[in-house]
Design a protein that fits this description.
By secondary structure, this protein is α+β, with helices and mostly antiparallel strands. The chain has helices spanning about 10-15, 35-40, and strands at about 1-5, 15, 20-25, 30, 50-55. A hairpin with a 4-residue loop joins strand 2 (about 15) and strand 3 (about 20-25). The longest helix is centred in the middle third of the chain and has 7 residues, at about 35-40.
Length: about 80
């Protein structure tokens, strides 16, 4: 599954998006399958781009540095 954002092409041409069952509003986000993404991104009979891929933010955890240990010296 891919998360996509609709362009204004659907609204301008009046073509319904199957996943929504209606004309997509510009900027509307929804999920599509990989094969459907290829079709909506320009590989269609209209040669128009109906959606663009939305980058999913990757949760990056802060790197935890290990504590440094030091050898204790004996005082003679």
């Amino acid at each position: 599954m891919k998360h996509v954002r609709a362009t204004n092409v659907s609204a301008i041409t009046g073509i319904k998006i199957k996943e929504l069952g209606r004309v997509a509003s510009p900027g509307e986000e929804f999920d599509v399958t990989d094969s459907r993404f290829k079709t909506l991104s320009g590989n269609n009979m209209y040669h128009k781009v109906f959606v663009v891929l939305v980058e999913q933010p990757v949760d990056i955890e802060e790197e935890v540095k290990p504590k440094r240990t030091r050898k204790k010296t004996e005082n003679a």
